[in-house]
Every structure is written in C-alpha cells, then in structure tokens.
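Team,

Forwarding the record for the chain on the shared tracking sheet. I've put the sequence and predicted structure together so nobody has to dig through attachments.
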Amino acid sequence: MKLWHAELVAWRCRRGLKELDIILQAFFQQHYSDMPDEQKLTLQSILLWTDPELMDALLYQHTNPDLAMPVQQLLTQLRIFAKSLIHYSAV
C-alpha cells in the first residue's frame, strides 16, 4: 500500500458517526505528523473499515486476534487516546 497524502488521511478521519469524528480527527491532528510511515500505513488500513467496524474496535473494544500486531497496537493507542478525550471532557 502506498502512503496517502495527509489531506486524504484527514478526510478519511471524517466519518458518519460523531463519536468517530471526534476521536479520529483529534488523533490525526495530534499524532499523524509524528507517526512513522509504517504506522501511517496501518492507520490508512484501519480507515478503510466501515463505521460499525470502527465503533466495535474503538468504543466497544471488541478484539479480533487475527488482526496483525501493528493493527492491534494502533487500535490500543487509539482506545487510550479516546479514553483520554472522554476523561478530559469530563473534567
């Protein structure tokens, strides 16, 4: 897979569900420029998932042991980030 332009990644972070928009757009803004290319490619592959798949993985924390380790690691990072957003907004 070839790296997308950052603008396309930012666009793909816009989803049909507000919860995903908030998490993915904030994650992109805070972390994307510092991510290594391998992790950017992993994020690209996750952004190809459907909204229900992303909701299950990020908000409901359903795990699939068949996912590649880089995908599992980035999902964990995204979950931690999402929890920090929730904690921050509750303060």
